[in-house]
Design a protein that fits this description.
Blueprint: H1 11-20, H2 31-34, E1 46-49, E2 56-61, E3 84-91, E4 99-107, E5 114-119, E6 127-134, E7 137-138, E8 142-145, E9 157-162, H3 173-180, E10 186-189, H4 224-235, H5 238-246, E11 248-251, E12 262-263, E13 266-267, H6 272-275, H7 278-292, E14 312-316, E15 320-324, E16 347-349, H8 353-360, H9 369-379, E17 386-390, E18 400-401, E19 412-415, H10 423-435, E20 442-447, E21 453-459, E22 469-475, H11 484-491, H12 498-515, E23 519-523, E24 528-534, E25 538-545, E26 565-573, E27 579-581
Parallel strand pairs: 1-11, 9-10, 10-11, 15-17, 17-20, 20-22
Antiparallel strand pairs: 1-2, 2-5, 3-4, 3-6, 6-7, 6-8, 9-24, 12-13, 14-15, 16-19, 18-19, 21-22, 21-23, 24-25, 25-26, 26-27
Helix pairs in contact: 1-11, 3-5, 4-7, 11-12
The protein binds fe (ii) ion.
Length: 597
């Protein structure tokens, strides 16, 4: 789901936000993102990511201290500051009595003084601690672990699934709750880790946070300096910093790490006349992403791909694997239907022959064909019980009843920015899943983007009464970004009771689910995260959501201490390839990563 621009669902919300955000700020107000640079060398904390059986990426930002009195601080994006030697250490214990790897790197303004080390030669499924040192200062200690990946052993696998963490959308209670957990192998973020919007008329999020939780830079991020500062703002958030410090993360970008509803050569929220060439903007956005995220760029030579290869595979012994897709860089332009959408897609009516033909055009692609082939090979591989797929936009076919969305006429809509907008790829992949024999295991798609919580069967055909499921999809709620409830709330008259807005939202999501019998769960009110727990017998998804709004506290996202709480559980039982109810939240892990101290 997208910003408050242009789509049929968004008009009323845009009006509300435009009024609230009328005090347009210009230029760089870097205080919030830059402050940690003045709190010592390691003010942006530490992070780790992309755990394999024997390696991990560890990350920090090392701000060089001023050499002379009066020198400007080398804030993120500034290009300032001398090169700085940084020592890193990885140990079995948080006190670093048992250091297992140590090294030194030189960072500089070329990488915005970020530091990223791919530490190799480690033991599988083992807990480690890491830190950085420079000029007598020591970073916070990060906790991390290698993947539960041994050839002939089944380990527990449990992780947090998140997406859509709009800084101006609310406090990161979901990240706080994930940081509190002691039972995760990693956090999987499937996109929209940052948003590109500014604090003016394009501001995205509740008006109540204007002045207390503003974006940095204050204007839309369109160049390297802007994207670096926006990433720095996120790393400066205490809840996000702690979630990075406590767990390794696996991340992949979606559109907002560059611009809303991006495709291969443009984006809905990119105006070439004003903002320059899209390719230049995207290259700078990717550069900042690679600098500021604990992300390992995969081998560019071993797998066919177009452009830069970001997609990659993680393995977890006989239990399963996780293919992490990248679906923005090479995608064909979304199908647009005026006046519903102008560029970049969105909710469009179906049943119009020219539109239906464009949606089904086999020359249009979501991932590039080489990436889809790579995924299909993994799904057809032997020896792993579950094939998890980290994915950005909903893969399951979803038809939206226009009447329920308040669209005039008796129209049926789909979201052309989802896999539904690339129906040849969608049908190709789902047919491939349906064709896999039981011996190949089952697929579980893990998705974000739409700022709401879903559990669905992937129907290999779409006959309502007796469709054939070929796998399942779980969609996590947004961390903070506006969901169905906020859009409904903004479209209702001021003063509408909260209970009415909640009931209206549930009416809409209920109508969507009723139109698509393979949808088993759809919540459009809460925000938070989804816990994914994998055993040989089943994959379970526990949805942790912010409380339903009340009159006293209309938006839990603006309360800095609210954590999402347990809401619902769904599962897919091995061999069933469909969703079923689960009785309650998962219990203790069956095993723990090894510790050696
Ligand atoms: Fe999003």
């Amino acid at each position: 789901m997208r910003s408050t621009r242009r789509s049929v669902l968004k008009g009323a919300a845009l009006a509300a936000v435009a009024v609230a955000g009328a005090t347009t700020l210009r230029g760089f107000d870097a205080a919030a993102a830059a402050a940690p640079a003045s709190r010592g060398i390691f003010g942006y904390g530490v992070a780790s990511g992309d755990p394999t059986a024997d390696s991990l990426v560890i990350w920090t930002r090392a701000t060089p201290p001023p050499r002379h009195q009066g020198d400007p601080v080398a804030t993120p994006g500034s290009g300032l500051g001398a090169p700085l030697p940084v020592v890193w250490e990885l140990a079995h214990d948080p006190g670093f009595r048992s250091v297992v790897r140590r090294g030194a790197v030189l960072t500089s303004a070329r990488s915005d003084h970020t530091v990223k080390v791919d530490v190799t030669g480690l033991r599988p499924y083992t807990r480690y601690y890491y830190r950085f040192r420079a000029e007598g200062q020591t970073s916070p200690v990060g906790r991390t672990q290698t993947a539960p990946d041994e050839a002939h052993r089944v380990h527990a696998l449990r992780f947090g699934l998140v997406s859509c963490s709009n800084f101006t959308g609310g406090y990161f209670g979901a990240y706080r709750a994930l940081a509190d957990r002691d039972d995760l192998d990693f956090v999987l973020h499937v996109g929209d880790y940052i948003y590109e919007y500014g604090n003016g008329a394009d501001r995205y999020g509740p008006a109540a946070l204007i002045g207390t939780r503003d974006g940095v830079p204050a204007t839309e991020t369109i160049d390297l300096q802007g994207y670096r500062l926006r990433h720095a703002l996120h790393k400066a958030d205490p809840d996000l910093a702690r979630a990075h410090r406590q767990h390794p993360w696996i991340t992949i970008f979606d559109d907002h790490e560059v611009a809303n509803n991006a495709w291969a050569t443009g984006a809905e929220n990119h105006t070439p006349d004003v903002e320059g060439a899209f390719a230049t903007r995207r290259r700078q956005a990717y550069e900042a992403y690679l600098e500021w995220m604990p992300f390992r760029l995969p081998d560019q030579r071993t797998v066919a791909h177009d452009g830069t290869r970001f997609f990659k595979l993680f393995t977890f012994g006989p239990l399963g694997d996780l293919s992490v897709l990248e679906t923005r860089q090479n995608r064909s332009q979304q199908v647009d239907v005026a006046p519903f959408t102008r560029s970049g897609g969105g909710f469009i009516p179906v049943g119009i022959p020219a539109v239906d033909a464009a949606l089904a055009d086999p020359s249009r692609h979501l991932p590039e064909p080489a990436q889809l082939d790579w995924l299909k090979r993994t799904l057809a591989s032997d020896g792993r019980r579950w094939h998890l797929i980290g994915n950005q936009v909903i893969m399951t076919p979803v038809r939206f009843p226009g009447a329920a969305l308040g669209v005039p006429g008796n129209l049926t809509l789909l979201n052309s920015d989802q896999w539904d907008g690339y129906q040849a790829d969608q049908a190709n992949l789902i047919a491939h899943l349906a064709a896999q024999p039981a011996s190949k295991g089952d697929a579980v798609v893990l998705t974000g983007d739409i700022h709401s919580s879903w559990a669905m069967d992937l129907p290999a055909d779409r006959s309502a009464a007796d469709y054939r499921p070929s796998g399942v999809e779980f969609v996590c709620p947004s961390v903070t970004s506006d969901g169905f409830y906020e859009l409904v709330r903004a479209s209702l008259p001021a003063g509408t009771p909260t209970a009415t807005a909640v009931a209206t939202t549930q009416g809409i999501t209920g109508a969507v689910a009723a139109t698509n019998p393979w949808i088993k769960y759809l919540d459009g009110v809460g925000h938070g995260y989804t816990l994914i727990d994998v055993t040989p017998d089943r994959v379970q998804a526990d949805f942790y959501l912010t409380p339903t709004p009340t009159e006293a506290e209309p938006d839990p996202r603006i309360d800095p201490v609210v954590r999402p709480g347990y809401a619902r559980s769904w599962q897919t039982v091995a061999g069933s390839r469909r969703i079923s109810a689960a009785t309650g939240p998962v219990g203790a892990r069956s095993d723990q990563p090894a510790t050696h101290h």
